[in-house]
Amino acid sequence: QVQLVESGGGLVQPGGSLRLSCAASGFAFMRSTMSWYRQAPGKERELVALIVIDGGSLRYADSVKGRFTISRDNAKRTVYLQMNSLKPEDTAVYYCKSGQFWGQGTQVTVSS
Fold first, then answer.
1. DSSP string, 51-93
2. Is 90 exposed, middle or buried (0-12, 13-18, 19+ CB in 10 A)?
3. pLDDT (tens digit, 9 = 90+) per residue, 33-82?
4. Using an 8 Å Cβ cutoff, are 78 and 23 in contact?
5. For residues 63 and 97, what is the distance between their CA atoms, to the nearest angstrom?
């Protein structure tokens, strides 16, 4: 069955960095657009970043442009989200998504 397993979340100080990973299985990863979403307490889930099949087209939320980078390794069936210059407002549960499938989420907390 389809599985999306996120990892890499945690507690980090403002200005710090984290790299999230999403390991995919059970579907044609190489032919799938992958994306990262996040949901902060009391807020709607929002798109953070998206990458198409060959990595040639990327899309970012305005709030993370210049700080976050999405990438994929098709051989490893993994998509990454490198997050730099983290801010407290980046605190959220981060989810990996492909089509109608979602991962379980990983918590990112930015706090001093």
1. E-TTS--EEE-TTTTTTEEEEEETTTTEEEEEE-S--GGG-EE
2. buried
3. 999 999 999 999 999 999 987 777 889 999 999 999 999 999 999 999 99
4. yes
5. 19
Q: What is the pLDDT of residue 92?
A: 98
Q: Which two tokens stand for residue 107?
A: 């918590």
From the CA atom positions of the chain, what is the Rg in Å? 13
What value does the mean pLDDT of the chain take? 95
Of residues 95, 92, 62, the one with CA closest to residue 81:
95
Q: Spell 32-65 as b/e; 16+ CB within 10 A means b.
A: bebbbbbeeeeeeeeebbbbeeeeeeeebeeebe
